Amino acid sequence: xxxxxxxxxxxxxxxxxxxxxxxxxxxxxxxxxxxxxxxxxxxxxxxxxxxxxxxxxxxxxxxxxxxxxxxxxxxxxxxxxxxxxxxxxxxxxxxxxxx
Length: 99
Description:
Largest sheet: none
Radius of gyration: 41 Å
Shape: elongated
Helix content: 25-40%
Number of helices: 2
Strand content: under 5%
Order of helices and strands: HH
Distance between the termini: 98 Å
């Protein structure tokens, strides 16, 4: 009963908001366009160089298993060990299973 008799209070008066002060526009930092282009050119050239060496055809006189060809006009290496082909790996025989 007491709730029905109570008068609801009026809402508080709204305070007028002050006008926002004009702030100077902050300049956004930008990436230099020249740097961006230069990095992309370097990246594309690096990818092209890798693809060239991966997909270039082998010389016609090279057979699989042959040693690498000597570099022309390369200086001789004194006391260089002679390279030999590694021995073929031996695979042990599978033991028989008798039941």
